[in-house]
Fold this protein.
Amino acid sequence: IEPLDVESIRADFPILQREFDGEQVVYLDNAATTQTPEPVVETIADYYRTTNANVHRGLHQLSQEASVAYEDAHDRVAEFIGASGEREEIVFTKNTTESENLVAYAWGLNELGPEDEVVLTEMEHHASLVTWQQIAKKTGATCRFIRVQEDGTLDMDHARELIGDDTAMVSVVHVSNTLGTVNPVAELADIAHDHDAYIFVDGAQSVPNRPVDVEAIDADFLAFSGHKMAGPTGIGVLYGKKHLLEEMEPYLYGGEMIKKVTFEDAKWNDLPWKFEAGTPVICQGIALAEACDYLDDIGMENVKRHEDELAQYAMERLQEEGDVETYGPPAGEERGGLVAFNLESVHAHDLSSILNDSAVAIRAGDHCTQPLHDKLGVAASARASFYIYNTREEVDKLVDAIDDARQLFA
Ligand SMILES: Cc1ncc(COP(=O)(O)O)c(CN[C@@H]2CONC2=O)c1O
């Protein structure tokens, strides 16, 4: 594992040179969305300049080229997460949220009933929590929530208690976008499978940030977003085991997802096209494949270590004054590349706008985890989240800007 050459990486992100009132931007909102490197931007521009056409093998050269690039992008993404079924296990959606909804509607609505349970965790993002909660209401199924412990980790004894013979689906976030907690998803998959339940892993904050091997986890489904991994917005990925996707009915109907249509009925297309109705996210898919190349050139172990270092350094610095409460595992314990926190007597929204005065960009709010914030007993939190182009000096600038707020509200 070698240290990242952050300076040469930063050269790929011209946006990081932007200045607000003479202050260079310090972009620490990567859990919300990451910036886009030149090679990915070039891929997007080149596509529209040279290859743009509608896919699924129109009978002309441009469509052939666009179709091959789009279809191959599925194989590239499959390789990035260790899906040996290649394109047949990779559905391109709009984002993680749509990927969660696809399984909740296409599988959940048909398979869940009043005797079934869906086991979630208290740290789920609304993309899974609200989705399964609403599908459970429609089907009469019951949602159960694995407890989060004081130190931000999952109560695995409680997980073993909740996951049982009535469990049909376990849906769990791999890395919490609020706590930074890294959940033992392979162990949870084992427990789910021991009870013939499926497991859906929300990989939005893990696939972009650390090596993820869907087959090592033995996930039945896994979702993530292109815009969180140096790719464009407008594309998400649903990984599903091939035999499960084969058995599942589609939930979006239209062109491209069919093989044969009569006035009476329709036959579905092969995987993954069965789940990609209408004109798909062609350019975004091709750009996401480029983002996979960009990240693999750096090495996902190296990405993980870089983020680990910055997150631990931030934990250390934030706790120096004693008036900052951080959430999730304590300093020194494993966490993803993010820290949510509150500065005593300063509301997170006020803090983030003061940080913005110093061109420090963080997120403030509930991070789409309102039930978790209720449990933490706070209405909102500030959150700094790191990626491949951030530096220790930027953590220092964050801490200096927090000190400005401390002085202002003293
Ligand atoms: C753990 C997790 N799951 C699902 C999502 C939904 O992803 P899409 O928005 O791409 O569908 C997010 C997005 N993270 C939110 C978005 O902004 N700030 C966050 O932490 C997330 O962090």
The pocket of DCS is lined by residues 31-32, 95-97, 125, 127, 173, 177, 202, 204-205, 225, 236, 363, 367-368 (CB under 6 Å). The longest strand covers residues 167-173. The two ends are 44 Å apart (CA to CA). DSSP finds 14 helices and 17 strands in the chain.
